[in-house]
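Sequence in, structure out. Go.
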Amino acid sequence: MDGKDNALEELLRLAQETKGRARLFCQGLFQKLLQKILKHKKIRLLKDKAAGYCAKAKRKWIALKFYRRQNKDKKLTRYIVKQLLLYFFVMYLFFFLIFFVNQIMLFMKQLLGKRIPIVDAMKLMFYSLPFVIAQSAPFATLTGFLMCLGRMNTDNEILIFKASGCNLRKLLLKPIAVLGVIISIFSFFVNDYLLPLGTSKTREQLRKSIASNPTMEVEAQSVKRLNDTSVVFGNVSDKDVSDLLLLDYDESGNQRFIVAGKTHVDSGAYKGVSMRFDMNDATVIVLDRSKPSDFDLLKSKTMSLHLFESTVFNFERSLSPAELTSFDLGKRIGKMKKEGGHDPREINMNVLEYNKKFSLPFGSLFFAFLAMPLALLFGKVNGQTIGLVVGIFISFLYWAMMTVGIQLGYRNGLNGFFLMWLPNTVVGLSAFLFYLGARKK
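Output:
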């Protein structure tokens, strides 16, 4: 029994030792596995962090690259805008002087020969400035942009833009379009608001000048048409006329002839009277409209005849289309069409003037788009000089088309809308065709 008990105790002791060793072994193995798991997790976390840092750095690099690209594009855009504006203002001054000198020559021919005071003449020239400004803007846009882009093409600046990876269409078209719109809006404001105001002021100043100095309407050996009255003047010396013949109608519609010898012309002494004729040896003949064979004959040693402002100036008629804004003129056209009974030619003249108020100012936008392909195609050598010559030539053709269109509309009654927008349509189609040619090249 003792031997068996000792063997059992030994077995139990060995089993406990084995169990303890197995527990220690399992604990050690578990700790090793846990350490490996934790080690792999840290690596994964480190990898995730590294990937995050890389992605963040990549985003920052892309953003920095984009910012540099955008900054470079902004600098190039500012440079192009400055150059375009510089050439535009130079050519604007050129065309402004041409049209202004032309206006001065017209005033010298029409007014200075009538002994108009120099102050009144300067006022009339000042009131004509809106017309000069509105006329100069479209032609300055075309010629200035052509010279600027042609010079860039000659100096290989456009080639450098392309080589640096810039989008040429975006880089050039955007400032050209924006400047074209701004110039067109400014020109439209001048043409639609300041030009009618200047025309009204011109008529008012002429009325005042004639009232203060009526002899400005008196020219030697001439026939003067004053609304429904015609006056034939003989020789003129200061305010004296050697012979005078006046033809008009009385209140009954009978035709009247007034013939006089020496006549003194003076200002009206009453309100509403434009001028007064103090006639000597006057003869008045009145023809009876109902009986052509009957007439009245009056003779007088002296006679005074007063010409009212309504005779010299036709204030009873409505304002001319040139004296109205586009809004007012549009309302007049709608009213004329709604009422009916108006002469179709008169309606067409108003339609022509209405469309002219839009087509001429916005011609700057069409010219701006035409300048780019022309400069790219023909500005490789001497682009600035070629731009000047081509710009002036196209401007002359455009002006000729507008002038002929106005004459055809007024004289022949052709459609005013078609005539006024035809030049811009031709310019727009030409710009599109030249753009396709420049793109292929």
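Check: The chain has a mean pLDDT of 79. The chain has eleven helices and nine strands.
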